[in-house]
């Protein structure tokens, strides 16, 4: 858990550099993730739901023997849910040794966005999701929203984070 | 040699033969001997004055024997020695050390003087030498005394005076004591010097007869522990008289060994009497013994009768043994490894030796519990023997020599010459540490490189040689050798060892076993131990007796398992390859099951059968491959065994230590990581948790504290518990410390367990003192980090004055679980079979609620709570009515409850995997890949209850 926090914190200060990004659609908006953080893209497969999870966690899936969580990005960003289509797929993102699958509506392309074309995110006020963005990139006449992967993966509202704080009642053992 | 010489020699031998068999009153034979001696006197006329002097004395002695019976045997022995010396002179054609003569001469004097002062008519302060002490009744041929006093008597006299000096002094003092003491020491030393002069060539009937005579006397009359040894020797000699033994070398070795043994025993008893404050001259000698030995060794490395040379009386052990001690007295130099060291073999050698050492160590720990177990001793012996051999083969001589020294000690234990007591255990366990140290240092050796000696090498070699060569008791040896804080060793009063109680559950303690011995230790500078034996004493006799009566065996047994099996045949495999194989097999199984579920297969019965067959084989393959990486916690627990024992000793507390579930397996990758936290937790328990004996007793607790280390699988996890019945955690203190260090807001309200968990924060420590064991606030932090790495949980339970239990919950990364697949709605979950008691169906009527809240169902006469998973998990399409559902009785740490599920699908063997969710899962402990490739979530049966 500490590592996650560290990664998250590291991401805060970093200014996005130019480079290759994988772009995809959520609805009409186009998002981008640094290509180095993308492990693979897989088609929609059987996802096992996990009980008592926030709505944006779809569940877990089996990735060649490893069980990884799957996140619904639409839900994460507060977008209304839609049905899965044939174009829906899962982008497996990695940060450090953590991996997560993210469900996206449609994968677009690998775009080469120049650093000069990247600007800071203007504050949108209360819009959910603005804190997950690390910048806005211009590419071929279109605007792509650059995602801050570590924030997306690990930023969890405090009430949901309960590794240390949960007081599992100390059941006095039969000493 | 010329013929006359031969005749002389033969005459002398004859004399010795006669004398050996002579008894008081046997005048005829004494006469015969005397006559023979007279002849030889002529032969030696004009030769060395020393020689003639000796002959004269011998003659007088014979006369004494003829006339009187007092001190017959000692005189006889002295004469034998003298005659032998003369014979040596003849054999070697005069090439004999002066000391030999002096010794023989001196001994004769002593013997003769021993009975009455009156014989020494002109013993002006013993200044006069032999001539002066000539008995008045000198029937000697008369020539000799004159010859002696004439000519170059000076040097002889001076030397002789020196000799005479000591004996009179000691004799005078000793004659006040039981004359036995002086007689005994003369004889034993004589025997020793006679034996020393023996060689394979001169071992003939006459000598044997002489030996037999001396031994016979000693066997009958010697004090204390010497007699039995002499009796042994007598027995051995019994068959050999009149002819040479078949194996001269072996015979001689045996002789020397026995004599040294006897000398050592004598020395020890001298030490004892010295402590009692007797007036023996031996006191200063004995107390200085360590130093003395070195000195003597340094002075007379050629093994001659050094006690003749140095004026300290006769209590110095044979120089033969001294020579050894001498070399160890200096710091052993670093060892230069042979140039042709085969480095490719080196690693294998180190690995193998490490294995041997581990086996030896665990056997030794068990041996402390059951000292009489021969098999254990043999095991240890074999290990050291192997190490000795292989290290010799590798050219690592110091290591081989060391192993040999330990082997010798073990041999003594094996032959019941030495009891395996606590001091012995300390020595052997330290030896193990030294070998470990050797192995570590050898890791990077190249041909021609330098192997530095481990720190404790020298002093332990010293200790070992004292025990083996001189028969010093291990306890005394440890106390004597400088360079080791005696107080540490003297804490033999308290220790951790084990013997099974009747319950077969825990190891009991043998508190200060060596009560008698520790008294001796206390006499030698070791004040620290003074109080301990006293307070623990009351428990000793009874506990000890109980332990030895139990004669139960090892921890393997106390866990209800069969006796520890011999090591199974095994093969070393590269770990990476192993991992790859396991991963591939896993994928193969899944890929195959996807094929197997294809519609094409199921529609063709023949094909279906074949596929199903291969599925079965694959499953088995997967199961086996997964076990390849699992290792039992046994090895880890054994390391803890040793740790607890050493810690308990160091801290001076008495602890009973029990382990359970050492056969629980975990992934080998986790084993290394779990080691450190366990060490820290055990240290903490011992250092901070357990109070010292007085405090415990004043609280009404048993003086012997208890510590448990347990491992088991539950709720789909591996649980390791460390529990103690010490003073528990102090909530206020912890809270106070945390607030003081700014780790917690003063206003925050924390639950009890949250408070306890504060101790895991970095920098936290409530220890008032920092011992080197713990207290720096670092240990618990390490624990927490390691557990995090393993993605586990730590829980702390504590009750003031009752104890503390720390529970580590580890997810199995690759632990195989037998799981029961259950369906709730459209979702499937896995319940670890180990926690399932049974399934049953109930009727609505059997359900009832308590306080309108928790549902209970009647099961086998008891009421157990019902947990509706569909409600808990928010699964909409599940069966809700009891009548149509199935109840799964789950058993957790004796707490039962019933899980309401739609149906039980079937049982499967699964590989449990932990899932790294961004949000921590509740009630789910992990997942597994099901046969159809989907993920099945494994229920956390423990968490469900809360």
Helices and strands of chain B: which structural class? alpha+beta
Taking pLDDT < 50 over at least 5 consecutive residues as the criterion, the unreliable ranges of chain A are 161-175
Largest sheet features of chain A: 6 strands, mixed
What Rg of chain B is obtained from the alpha carbons, in whole angstroms? 39 Å
* SS class of chain A: mainly beta
Helix coverage percent of residues of chain A?
10-25%
For the record, give the distance between the C-alpha atoms at the N and C termini of chain B, rounded to a whole number: 103 Å
| Apparent shape of chain A | globular
Helix content percent band of chain B:
40-55%
Strand content of chain A: 35-45%
Largest sheet of chain B: 6 strands, mixed
Mean pLDDT of chain A: 79
Number of strands of chain B: 20
Q: In oligomeric terms, what are we looking at? A: heterodimer
Strand order of the largest sheet of chain A: 8-1-2-11-10-9
Q: Biggest interface, and residues per chain?
A: A-B, 44 and 46 residues
What is the typical, i.e. mean, pLDDT of chain B? 70
Measured on Cα atoms, how large is the radius of gyration of chain A?
Answer: 18 Å
Structure description:
The complex is a heterodimer of chains A (175) and B (946). Chain A is mainly β and 175 residues long. Chain A is built from 3 helices and 11 strands. Chain A is globular and about 45 Å long. Chain B is α+β, with helices and mostly antiparallel strands and 946 residues long. Chain B has 37 helices and 20 strands. A 6-stranded mixed beta sheet of chain B has the order 12-16-17-15-14-13. Chain B has a 5-stranded mixed beta sheet with strand order 4-6-7-9-8. In chain B, strand 16 (886-892) and strand 17 form a beta hairpin. The radius of gyration of chain B is 39 Å and the shape is elongated. Classes of the chains: A mainly beta (175), B alpha+beta (946). The A-B interface holds A 1-2, 4, 46, 48-54, 57, 59-62, 64-69, 71, 98-100, 153-154, 156, 160-173, 175 and B 583, 586-587, 590, 723, 725, 751-754, 756-757, 788, 795-797, 799, 802-803, 805, 807, 827, 872-875, 913, 915-924, 927, 929, 933-937, 943, 946.
